[in-house]
Amino acid sequence: QGLKPLVPTESPAPIFGTSKPPSEAEAFLGKNKVPDLQKVFQRSDGLPVHLKRGVPDRLLYRTTMALTIGGTIYCLVALYIASQPKNK
Q: Which UniProt keywords apply (predicted)?
């Protein structure tokens, strides 16, 4: 007779299925931008990867650096003020 499988051979119905047909779901997701971005980021132009997309990346990078330097200076000033004895 042999062994019977413990697990049913039919797959269960999906719990979180979509109610849209596949064509509408694909249209909702839009165009796949990954191949285009791969071309941009793999281009050999001597730029670091965090600056490859031009002006928006430079703006974000410079803002981050300014906030980092400003925060460091603020912390050093706060530590200096906290280290001074209070006058009575």
A: Membrane, Mitochondrion, Mitochondrion inner membrane, Transit peptide, Transmembrane, Transmembrane helix
Cβ atoms 52, 40 nearer than 8 A: yes
Q: What is the pLDDT of residues 4-60, one digit of tens each?
A: 666 666 766 767 766 655 566 666 677 888 888 889 888 888 888 888 888 999 999
The full set of domain ranges for the chain reads: 24-83
Contact 28, 20 (CB under 8 A): yes
Residue 87 contacts residue 81 (beta carbons within 8 Å): no
User: Is 24-83 a domain of CATH 4.10.91.10?
Assistant: yes
Q: In whole angstroms, what separates CA 41 from the centre of its chain?
A: 15
Q: What angle do CA 29, 50, 58 make, to 5 degrees?
A: 100
DSSP letter assigned to residue 87:
P
pLDDT computed for residue 23 by the predictor: 63
